[in-house]
Amino acid sequence: MNIQERVEKLRQKMAERDLDAYIVLTSDPHSSEYVPEYYKEREFITGFTGSAGTAVITKNKAGLWTDSRYFLQAEEELKGSPFKLYRQYTNDGDPTWQEFLLAETSEFAKIGFDGFTMPTSIYRRLSQSMGNRLLVTDVDFISEIWEDRPSLPKRPAFYYPVEHSGASMEEKIKILRFMMREREVDYTFLGSLDDVCYLFNIRGWDVEDTPVVLSFALVSQDKVMLFIQPEKLSDEIRRPLDKAGVEIYAYDDIANKLSAIPPQKTVYLDPDYTNITLYQAIPDNVRIEKGVNLTSLMKAIKNKTEVDNLHQAYIKDGIALMKFFNWVETGAKTGSVTERAAAKRLNEFRAEGKDFLMDSFPAIIGYDANGAIVHYNPMHSDHPATIQNKGLLLVDSGGQYLQGTTDITRTYAMGETTDEEKTDYTLVLKAHIAGMAAKFPEGTTGSYIHNVVRYPLNQAGMDFNHGTGHGVGMLLSCHEGPQTFSRIDGGVKIVPGMVTSVEPGLYVTGKHGIRTESITLCVEGETTDFGTFYEFEPLTWVPIDTRPIKMDLLTDFELDWVNRYNRTCYDKLADHLDGEVLAYLKARTRAIERPQ
User: Stretch 570-583: mean pLDDT, rounded?
Assistant: First the structure.
C-alpha cells in the first residue's frame, strides 16, 4: 500500500466508528523518544521518517506537525502524499495540531486515537482544549490496517553490573522508597523504559540506538513488581532480581495490577511517561500524585563509578572520531566519499573499540548545505552529498558503550572556507566556550546556561532554533532529563553529578550548518562570601578545528581556552593512536597564535 491507500483505509475505519478525526503520535506505551519498529505508526501512515512529529487525519484533510529540525526532511518525504506539513514552534502562522482539530471538526465531533500510545500529559491538555468534542481512546486503527507490521522485539535483555552502574538494585530501591516516604506516597509507577532499566540494572535491544527493554514497574514499601516478557530474562538477570525480592509479571499484566491498588492509597507517577489507558486503569478512589519520575531524579546525578566509566567511554569516542576525521579528510581530497559512506565508516571506527554496542542515535553527517538541516540523516536523504575538498562538514554522532552513552558534534573544515563560513564558525565557537566556561551559583536552573551560551550569537543578531543542552544517560537514552538548557527548564536545578551537553549551532539554509557540542559534568567550584559556585568539567575530548577560526573575533580568554582544550585532547588521546592518525591529532591540536 502507498501512503494514499493507507490514509483511505484509515478513513474507512474512522467512518465505521463515526470518528471525525484520528491522531497518530510518535510514541509507544512508554513515551519513548525513539520507538521500536513495531510502534513506528506515524511513520507508517505518513511516510515521514523523522523522530518527532504528530499526524492528524480528518475526513478530507491530513496534516503532519514537526519541529525545525525536520522541516526540510519532511517537505521532501511528504511530496506526493495527502499530508500537508505544518511547522511547529515558529511564527509562520501555522496552526498547532490542536488548533487544526478545533478548526476542522464540529463542536460535538468525535476524535479517536490509541490511548496506549497517548501520554497522560498530552491527553489532559487535549481534553482541556477540545471543548465538547468527545475523545475516544480505545481505537487502534493502525494495527488493523498495517498488514506487514514488524513483530515486537524478542531479543533477551542483559544485566548491567555494579562495576558499571555503581549501585545495586537493592541500593536503588532503598533510595526510591525513601523518596516515596518523603512524599507520603504508597506506590510509584514507572512507565519510561530508561527509568525501569536504570532501577533494575538491566539493558536490552528493543529500541534502535537505545539499549532498553519493553517493561513497566510498580513499587510499594513492601513490593517491587517488574512487568516484562518473561522470555527476555536470562538466569544472569533473574538471580539479582530474585535476590532483591523483585516479583516478575507478564508485560501485559500492568493494567490489572494498577486497577487492583487498594482504595485510599496514593500512587506517584510521571504524566509524561504514563499513557492514558494505564492512567485510567487506576481506580477512582486511589489518590494520584504527579511529578517527574523519582528515578529520573536519581539517575540524573551520576555516582563516582558512573563518572569514572563515562571518562573511559569518551576517550573511546575520541579515538574513533580522530580516526574518522583523518579518514574523511583524506577521502575528501579524492572526491570519493559520500555522506552515507562516512556514516557507515564512523560506525565501523566506533565498533573497532572494546565494549561498543551500538550508535546512540542515527549519525547526522551533513556536508555544505546539508549541514543546515538540523537533524539531517544521510541514510534517509534523496540527495546525499559527496564530500569535497572545501567547505564545512558537520558530524553529530554518539555511541553506546558498556562504560556509558556518548554524544558529540564537531564541525571540521574539509579545505578552503569562505569568510562567511569562518565568521559563523567562530561565533558558534564563542557560544560554546561561553557555556563550557560558565560558572554559576548554587540553585541555578538550565535557562541561565541557555542564555549564557546564546549571548555571543545574539549579540551578532543570530540564533538557533533548538535546545542548548540536554542530559545524557548511562548506557541509556542519549537525551535524558530532567535537566535541560533551554528557555523552559522546568525549574530543575543544575547540580554536581549531572551530565549535560553544551551545543550551540548556526544554520544558513542552502549554504552551511555549524554545531559544536561537548558533554559536560557539573562539579562544585569555589565557595566565596557570595555562596557556592558550580562549573562544568569536559567529558568530551575531540579537538576543536582551529582552521576556520577568525582570530580577530576571539578574546584572549577564548583563544587560551581553545589552546588549553586542544592540548588536553592531545594528552588524553595520543597514547591510543599511532601513525598518520597520531600525526593528524598533532596537527589538529597545534596551538594557534594571533598574527604579529
Answer: 98
Tens digit of each residue's pLDDT (9 = 90 or more) over 507-532: 999 999 999 999 999 999 999 999 99
Asked if the peptide bond before residue 271 counts as cis, ω within 30 degrees of 0, the response is: no
Report which secondary-structure segment, H or E, holds 531: strand 531-538
Terminal CA-CA length for the chain: 67
CA distance 447 to 470: 12
pLDDT score recorded for residue 187:
98
Q: What pLDDT, on the 0 to 100 scale, is given for residue 374?
A: 83
Cell of 148: 506487514
Residue 175: CB atoms within 10 Å: 16
Which residues make beta-bridge pairs with 23? Answer: 56
Q: Which helix (H) or strand (E) holds 202?
A: strand 202-203
Decide if 479 contacts 471 (C-beta within 8 A).
yes
Contact 377, 469 (CB under 8 A): no
The DSSP 8-state label assigned to residue 301 in this structure reads B
Per-residue confidence band for 570, with pLDDT thresholds at 50, 70 and 90: very high
- Please state, in angstroms and rounded to a whole number, the distance separating the CA atoms of residues 135 and 126: 9
Q: Is 178 exposed, middle or buried (0-12, 13-18, 19+ CB in 10 A)?
A: exposed
* Adjacency order of strands within the sheet including 364-367: 364-367, 392-397, 408-413
